[in-house]
Structures are given as C-alpha cells and as structure tokens.
Amino acid sequence: MEEKRILLAHGSGGRMSRELIERYLVRQFENPMLSLLNDQAVFPAPAQRLAFTTDSYVIDPIFFPGGDIGRLAVCGTVNDLAMSGAVPLYLSCSLIIEEGFLFSDLERILCSMKEACEEAKVQVVTGDTKVVNRGGLDKIFINTSGVGALADDNLMICGHRAQVGDKILVSGFLGDHEIAVLSQRKNLEFITEIRSDSAPLNLVVEPIIQQGLGQSLHAMRDPTRGGLATVLNEIASQSGVGLVIEEALIPIRDEVKGACEIMGFDPLYLANEGKLVAFVEGKKAHEVLSVMRDTKYGQDAQIIGEVVAEPKGVVYLRTSIGGTRILDMLATEQLPRIC
Amino acid sequence: MKYLDEYRDPAMAHDLIERIKDLSASINRKTRFMEVCGSHTVAIYKAGIKSLFPNLDLISGPGCPVCVTSSRDIDQIIRLAELPGIIVATFGDMIRVPGTTSSLQDEISRGAKVSVVYSPLDALEIARENQAKKVVFLAVGFETTAPTIAATILQAEREGVRNFSILSYHKLIPPAMKALLAEDEVRIDGFLCPGHVSAIIGSTPYEFIPKEYHIPAVIAGFEPLDILQALFMLLMQIKENRPAVEIQYSRVVRPEGNPGAMKKLWQVFQPADATWRGLGVIPESGLVLRQEFAHYDASLQFDLSVEERADPPGCQCGQVLKGLQRPTDCPLFGRVCNPQQPIGPCMVSSEGSCAAAYKYGRS
To answer: What is the pLDDT of residues B63-78, one digit of tens each?
Structure first.
C-alpha cells in the first residue's frame, strides 16, 4: 500500500489542515491550552522576570543517531532558555513541511518532540503548520519559540558577567552531535557508535540553582554551531576578559578524536546540542561541578580553565605538550546544516 | 587512544622539549628550520610548538598546493567554470581561492556547476552520472595526490569514460626545495621534509640537500612528538656537523617510498616546467599527462586562454612562501586580508601559512 503523504491541502487552512492539527499535533502535545484550538495561548505570568527565545531547525538528515529534528527543536529552545537560569515552561511549534512528506515520518518527529517535552517538563501551547510545494524546502523545517520563568530575582546570568578568577566548566563530552550527524551524510558515510548528545539542559541547571548556587553562575552558553571555541571567544569578548584553557582537561571521546583526525576537523569547533559552558565563581566551582556531575546530562562535567585579566578578549589554549597558542573563532568553514 | 594519544604524551613531550632546549642552547645561535608541508605548518601551530623554543625559528615554505597555484592558473579554472555544459569537480579548498577578478565561489553564485569531492574517483562517478556534461577534475596537489589521480585516469580509460578530463596543476616538492636553496637570499639551516609526500617518493629525492648544500633534512610525521623528535634530529645533525637525510616518520615512510604508486604516477604523467606562485617557473616541477592520455587533458579540449595579470598589489604571499617574510610582516595581514576575505592564496587554504598564522598565531 502506498504510504500516506502530506498534500498541499494539508496547509490550506481548510478541513484537511484542521484534521492534521487535531489528529497529529493536538493529540501528541495534548494539554488544556492547546486543546482550546485558539489562535493564541493565554496564561498568567509565571514570574516577574521572563526569558523568551526562538530558534529554527533545518538539520539534514532529519533522523540521526541519538535524535531527530523534533528532539532538537525542543531541546534547542529549552536550552536557550535554561542558559539564563530560567525554568522553561511553554513552547510554540511551527512546522513548514514539503509537499509529499510522509505522515509516518511526521508522526515519528512529533512523538519525539512530545517525549522531549515530557523530559524537559515544558508544554507546546500554540503552533502553526504550513505546507510548501515539493522542492520549496528540504523535507521539514521546524521553528520553536519558548518562554521561561526566572523565579529567583538574584539570578544574573549573562555573557557580560564572566569575571577574573571564574572557573570555566563544560558539562560533558564535546563534539558528539556533529560527528553523529556527519556520519549519516551522503559521501561522508562512516560507521560510528557516536550518538547525538541532544538533551534538555534545564535538567543540569535547575539542580545547581536549587542547591543555592545560582548566584555563582556568572555566564552560561550552550556551544552549538561553532562549538566550544566560538562560545569561549564570545564570552571573552563580551565580558572583556582573557581565558586560559587546558587542552588536556577538555572532555572529548576517543571516537570523536578519531573521526576528527580522519576528516580534518578540530573537535573544539564541533556543534553540540546537549552541553553547556559555565563561568562559575572560583571558590564555588567545585561545588557546582559536583552538583552537575550528579545530573543525568552532566556526569562527565569538567573544569577546563579559568578567566584571567589580560589580554582582554583573547582565548589561550595550553596544549597538551605544554605549548601555548590562541584559540580563535571559527573563520569560514562551510558548515553543513547541523541543527 | 591507540595511535593518537601515544604521540601526544605530555611526559615524553616534556622530556624532548628539555633536550631540544639544551641542544639548541649548546649550538649557540638562532637556527632556522623550514617545513614544506601545510600539514606540518598547522600541526606546529596547533601544538603551540613555536611558543616553546625562542631560539628556533620555524618558518613555512611552499607546502600548500593551493597556495602555490598561480593566479593565472586560477583564472583558467574560472574561465573553465564559465563554459556551458561543464561540471567542475574539485577538492573543497580550491573553491575560495581568488583569481585576479573572481573565485569559483563567485562563479557558483552566478550559476557555474561546481562539485566538491573527497576523491578523484567521486569525480569519475559524477561523469558517469552526467553523460551529457563534461566533467573536469582540478588536479591540484603534490606527489601525495598524483598517484590516486593517475589511478582514476587509468580507471576512466578501462571503462571508456570520455566525458571526464583533468586540469593538472600538480607540483613536485624536491624541485621547489632545490629552487629555494638556489636563491641567495634564502637562509635555511634545516628542512622538515613532508611525511606524506615522502611516503610516496621515499627519501632519495632529498639527497641533494645534504650533498650539495650541506644542510640537514628530516622526514617527519605530524603528531606533536613526531615534530619534536624531528627538530631534535635536525639539531643533532647540526651539532655533530653531519648533514644527512633521516627518516623520523619511519612508521609510514620507507627509503624507497611506494614504488607501486610511483609506477602508476609515471605511467600516466611526465614532468614539466610549472609556475609556482611566488617562486616563478621551476624546471620539471609539475606534471602533465603523457601523450597517450592526452585525451584526458582539459587544457587541450577547451579554450582557456586568459589575460596575464599581476598578483594583487601589496600581497606578500611570494615572499612568505620563500620564508623571507613572516605572514605577520605583510602589510595586508589581518588588516584587509583575513580568512573571511582572503587577498592572497596563503590566507585561503586552512593549511596556508597566513591562514595558520591568523588562526593560531596572533597575539
């Protein structure tokens, strides 16, 4: 039997659109706000200060070891909220689908979004669906926006606040996501056990705040495109400080190192979807590290370096053989669609 | 990790570093070593080796095949990409190299068909799949890539693929080293010889360096410990005044090289004079297809005539490639020339000396 496919009419706004929304979206994301089928979600302000973010997901391939575009679309937006210390609450979900897309693939993606939402304890409360002509886009693009609540007024986590003496923490092994995705690409196919690290990082951040360590978090960012090197350079320049990183302390799996050797990549520039870099007040760093290591997605966390006064805006790497060099931003490498 | 961490071992590195420092101090003058392989350039920067030895001057020679391709050759490639019915297949780093007025990247945005491949065999595959088009592979590289391209030509011949051809801009390393040494102004105390090129050609082609110029040469691997050990071997030769060609990278390189690969190379190609950016025409330093494979030579099939134009004003790539200037000495470096907007080819390829200096070496 021919598999059921998305037709242009499913995005027309008529009966077929309604069917798609009710049967697939509302059923998967079931919650009182969404089930009202209004054009917007209405909810009471959950806190004085809110965090708000948006991101679009265009990854190719849409299914990869350890995740898919759906899990990515939830975790990515949740993580952007969590990096401010906010508790993520509500998401929007906009789907732009290519005509002819398989319903079975859509269902698989929505199902994984739902699982990720449950894990991150967030709800999809509003959404939109469009269908474009075949060839108008590549399979499916997803946009999610998110709202989170900053319950504690003392939380001030910001890219400008890294301070001299801060320790730099990463929450686990770097590079898994990009290697897992690249391993699936045509012309680059290779066999690897590596799985994408796509994960909701509020599960790592919330325990730190609950333990009363929130104020020791000065800056936090998730190293997605551009990887660790890019985030370090961003923070160094935003905060006007220097950073010194110890190469030997950066957690990278042997398999990722190996794949990088073969393909000529530097793991410090590889994208991650479930890792964070935190700039933590020096004397609280070990406490924060141990809380991080007790969480599901922070078990392999490490302190990898510290913040120094000079030279401002520059990241130095002490190499494993004891040499020193700068660790620069990614200049121009052609990035394939990895998120 | 097997075969990786072993060559980056901090304790062994520390020991070697101390021994190099002692040896270097006992020689009592600043020594200048040149590497002629882009992968060495990057490896040296990446491991931070330059920062360790103030008494060693490590300079980069013409070791990046993209960087030594003349702008006239790039203009020819652009001309080719503009022709109708052509698919240009190339390794990725050629895409951004600026000719005098345009780059392949610019041509792509104007509708040229350019495919990035990881192997010349992929280019042959594209030819099989696009019978109505003519597929031209840009054969840019040193002795390392030439045998695989020769093998691709032989395969095309066996299969009778007729819509496939190459533009050979291959360069040979030993003639370039000879040309460098022949220049009066160039001062080099030792060569770090390329590991992968040598895996193909062996150590014999470098024998003229100690014999005629009394300069040491060590064929080195690419891991930090490889490079440190090779530096130690070079200094030892200077200290003991016994210049020779030595192989540090013995786990890969044999004195005789890879005779099977060399046989294929010479079956398909013959040496020819070639123009190197910065170095000019060097006799017998390039490769052209032999007469019996001339039907795979794109330069004979298409009109690729281009006007002669000068290299971009101010660009010091030529001096940098000879080791006469450091990338940072160039007035354009970091000001108007950077990896996002390269003026000269040394800034384009990630293995170019300017790109490596920009990425790892600024302070």
So the answer is: 888 888 888 898 999 9
pLDDT of residue A187: 61
* Residue contact B47–A319, C-beta within 8 A: yes
Residue numbers of B between 106 and 135 with CB closer than 8 Å to A: 117-118, 122
Amino acid letter at B128? R
Q: Which domains does chain A have, with CATH numbers?
A: 8-150 (3.30.1330.10), 167-326 (3.90.650.10)
Check: CB of residue B186 under 8 Å from CB of residue B46: no
Sort out which chain A residues have CB atoms less than 8 A from B1's CB and list them.
Answer: 254, 257-258
Based on DSSP, count helices (H) and strands (E) in chain B, helices before strands: 14, 11
* B220 alpha-carbon distance from chain centroid: 15
**What does the alpha-carbon distance between residue A132 and residue B95 come to, in Å, rounded to a whole number?**
32
Interface mutation vs chain A, best among B3, B8, B96, B105, most A CBs within 10 Å: B8
The amino acid at B24: S
User: A54-58, A292-296, B134-138, B309-313: which range is least confident on average?
Assistant: B309-313
Q: How far is A314 from chain B (nearest CA, A)?
A: 8
Task: Write out the two tokens for B235.
Answer: 């200094």
Distance CA A50, CA B284 (A): 70
Return the half-sphere exposure (C-beta side, CA atoms, 13 A cut-off) of residue A219.
Answer: 26
Per-window interface: A 184-243 vs B, CB < 8 A: 187-188
| CA B113 vs CA A185, B98, B100, B184, B244: distances in Å | 21, 17, 20, 45, 48
What are φ and ψ of residue B193, in 5° steps? -85, 150
- Gap between the terminal Cα atoms of chain B: 32
**Domain map of chain B by residue range?**
1-312, 317-361
Instruction: Give yes or no for B11 touching A (CB within 8 A).
Output: no
Q: How far apart, in whole angstroms, are the C-alpha atoms of residue A41 and residue A32? A: 10
Q: Write the DSSP string, A5-56.
A: B--GGGGSSSHHHHHHIIIIIIHHT--HHHHT--SS------SSEEEEEEEE
Rg (CA), chain A: 21
Q: Considering only alpha carbons, which residue of chain B is nearest residue A248?
A: B10
Q: For residues B135-167, b (16+ Cβ closer than 10 Å) or e, as one string? A: bbbbbbbbbbbbbbbbbbbeebbeeebebbbbb
CB A339 within 8 A of CB A57: yes
Cα separation of A288 and A166, whole Å?
12
| CB atoms closer than 10 angstroms to residue B132 | 6
| Residue A206, both tokens | 């919330």
CB of B92 within 8 Å of any CB in chain A?
yes
Chain B contacts of A319, Cβ < 8 Å?
A: 46-48, 224
| Token representation of residue A71 | 């899990």
DSSP H/E element including A217: strand A217-221
Contacts of A324 (CB under 8 A, 6+ apart): A316, A317, A318, B48, B51
pLDDT at B5 over 80: no
Q: Which two tokens stand for residue B349?
A: 């390829």
* pTM tops 0.90, yes or no: no
Tell me which fold the domain B1-312 belongs to: Rossmann fold (3.40.50)
B313 touches chain A (CB under 8 A): no
Chain B residues whose beta carbon lies within 8 Å of the beta carbon of residue A311: 363
Strand partners, B165: B136
Residues in B closer than 8 angstroms to A317, CB to CB, are 48
